[in-house]
């Protein structure tokens, strides 16, 4: 008998149609083939359903958690070297040239500046006992990529930061519920510094990602707010004290930020003196340049090329003095009942007032420095085009940082996998669980199909003997049964794919199965469809099952035609 595949398919098709084989050796007259083939098809279907659902859930879990973690941070971050925590890093001096160089790296799609500041939020309402919640303010600028939070915005709108002194914030629904806040409310925030201070922020938007560990911690505000709260750089202003020194005004420098070791330039170079006395007798402008230093007062200011360059960028403040009346008169200044200078304020902010001194009037107008805190950030955040190639992208950025002459600060480059190492290690363990489930289900399918093939061979022993008597070779008959079994496998795979993909689609559309976000970081079972993985799973399942059936099919060669024709 020829090994023509047309004959093989024809015979296998007939076997497929006629699965009811009567076995007189069994009790009564029972049909032996059909139940076992149904069991085999069911086992393959069940294995496919479990494998498809497992792949979709594990892939979805990894993708969803990774995407949300990246959404709160970035693919790559650049921060001061030696710092352990991204949220408590030392400041970096901003550099437009360096930012342009980072944007020009192949694969980098976005560069943004951020900074962090821990804070305590007070609950809303007039209850006797206020609730306090510790959070972290993340300061972002107008260049921040809000695409992630647009997806999870539940109320209000994203901060626009149109006002340079904007107090808009975006908080999570978890924080809003815990502190009884609503959209549009004013938040009271407290910051621990040398002297605790309070700031107020306006809620413009509420988000909810379901990533509990981040939702309960991060509040987004305007970057200058955090820069100023961190006392980065130097902020200088000139004040006139209420008391006098021998009838002279006491002019004092008031400086904050930096390292606290200050030096002052009143017009004749840096010195240690923050105060001096004077009696105005002409119109003048007093200029103050304030800076800090580490070791020597005459070291470079804000120079990143040397160890001494860790000093902050200086700030400049002014005091304008204008005289009215007899400018040369030496009359004493008028005082109030408590002995303080009697002031006539000319502005609501208290930065412009007059002092009366007998026959003349001294007009004082103060111009505080803008502060150099805006020149510092906590870190740069970079987004890359291909997250799967993040390690190579990290190496490119490290080389750009190391060999960039416009940016000589000591920094380190971390990927999101470095910053959230424990979380990504945990996610990688899911691949091991996935492999175990796939292997177990394949083994179950192989065992069941092997058993089914043995039964099919045994119940059709008479048929095999007739084929051999007609001249069919062992290889021909084995091909027939392999094709027949392969058809059963394909039938089981079809129903398994249909049911498995259908279950995944239902969960994807309607989120039927919930999760506890405190444990799983998500509030529902995630689903991620990967067509090529499903196709690969089907190919592997079919191939492995057919290869595994090779051994049971060897039983055909041991069947004797003379005996098998009489076999019942």
Structural class: alpha+beta
Q: Give the fraction of residues assigned to helices.
A: 25-40%
SS element count, helices: 16
- Largest sheet data: 10 strands, mixed
* Mean of residue pLDDT values: 87
Shape: elongated
**Cα radius of gyration in angstroms:** 39 Å
Low-confidence stretches: 20-30
- The end-to-end distance, rounded to whole angstroms, is 24 Å
Strand content: 25-35%
Tally of strands: 24
Description:
This protein is of the alpha+beta class and 568 residues long. Helix content is 38%, strand content 26%. The chain has 16 helices and 24 strands. The strands form five sheets. Strands 3, 5, 6, 7, 8, 9, 10, 11, 23 and 24 form a ten-stranded mixed sheet that branches. A seven-stranded antiparallel sheet has the order 15-14-17-18-21-20-19, with no helix packed on it. Strands 12-13-16 form a three-stranded antiparallel sheet, with no helix packed on it. Helix 2 (33-72) packs antiparallel against helix 10 (421-459) and helix 2 packs across helix 12 (474-510). The chain is elongated. The two termini are 24 Å apart.
């Amino acid at each position: 008998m020829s090994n023509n595949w047309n004959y093989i398919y024809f015979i296998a098709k007939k076997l497929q149609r006629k699965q009811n084989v009567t076995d007189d050796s069994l009790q009564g007259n029972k049909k032996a083939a059909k139940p076992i083939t149904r069991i085999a098809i069911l086992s393959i279907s069940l294995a496919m359903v479990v494998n498809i659902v497992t792949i979709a859930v594990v892939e979805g879990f990894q993708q969803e958690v990774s995407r949300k973690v990246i959404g709160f941070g970035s693919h790559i971050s650049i921060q001061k070297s030696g710092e352990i925590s991204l949220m408590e890093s030392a400041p970096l001096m901003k550099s437009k040239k360096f930012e342009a160089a980072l944007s020009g790296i192949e694969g980098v799609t976005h560069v943004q500046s951020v900074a962090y500041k821990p804070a305590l939020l007070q609950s809303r309402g007039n209850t006797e006992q206020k609730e306090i919640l510790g959070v972290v303010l993340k300061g972002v600028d107008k260049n921040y990529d809000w695409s992630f939070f647009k997806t999870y915005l539940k109320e209000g709108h994203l901060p626009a930061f149109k006002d340079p002194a904007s107090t808009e914030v975006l908080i999570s629904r978890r924080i809003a519920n815990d502190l009884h806040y609503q959209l549009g409310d004013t938040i009271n925030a407290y910051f621990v510094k040398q002297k605790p201070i309070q700031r107020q922020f306006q809620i413009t938007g509420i988000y909810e990602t379901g990533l509990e560990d981040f939702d309960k911690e991060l509040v987004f505000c305007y970057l200058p707010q955090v820069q100023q709260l961190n006392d980065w750089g130097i902020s200088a202003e000139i004040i006139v004290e209420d008391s006098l020194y021998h009838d002279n005004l006491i002019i004092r420098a008031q400086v904050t930020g930096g390292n606290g070791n200050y030096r002052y330039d009143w017009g004749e170079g840096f010195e240690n003196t923050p105060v001096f006395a004077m009696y105005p007798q002409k119109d003048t402008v007093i200029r103050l340049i304030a800076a800090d230093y580490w070791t020597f007062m005459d070291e470079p200011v804000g120079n990143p090329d040397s160890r001494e360059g860790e000093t902050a960028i200086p700030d400049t403040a002014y005091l304008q003095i204008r005289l009215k009346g007899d400018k040369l008169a030496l009359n004493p200044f008028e005082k109030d009942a408590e002995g303080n200078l009697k002031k006539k304020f000319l502005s609501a902010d208290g930065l412009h007032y007059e002092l009366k001194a007998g026959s003349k009037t001294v007009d004082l107008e103060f111009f505080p420095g803008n502060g150099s805190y805006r020149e510092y950030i906590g870190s740069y955040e970079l987004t890359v085009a291909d997250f799967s190639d993040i390690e190579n992208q990290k190496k490119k950025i490290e080389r750009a940082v190391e060999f960039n002459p416009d940016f000589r600060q000591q920094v380190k480059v971390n990927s999101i996998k470095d910053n959230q190492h424990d979380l990504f290690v945990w996610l990688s363990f899911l691949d091991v669980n996935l492999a175990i489930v796939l292997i177990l289900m394949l083994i179950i399918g192989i065992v069941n199909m092997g058993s089914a093939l043995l039964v099919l061979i045994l119940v059709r022993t008479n048929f095999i003997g007739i084929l051999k008597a007609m001249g069919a070779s062992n290889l021909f008959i084995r091909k027939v049964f392999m094709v027949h079994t392969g058809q059963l496998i394909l039938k089981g795979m079809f129903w398994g794919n249909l049911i498995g993909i259908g279950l995944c689609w239902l969960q994807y559309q309607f989120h039927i199965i919930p999760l506890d976000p405190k444990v799983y970081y998500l509030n529902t079972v995630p689903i991620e469809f990967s067509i090529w993985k499903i196709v690969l799973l089907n190919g592997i399942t079919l191939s492995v099952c057919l290869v595994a059936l090779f051994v049971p099919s060897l039983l055909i060669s041991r069947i004797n035609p003379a005996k098998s024709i009489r076999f019942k």
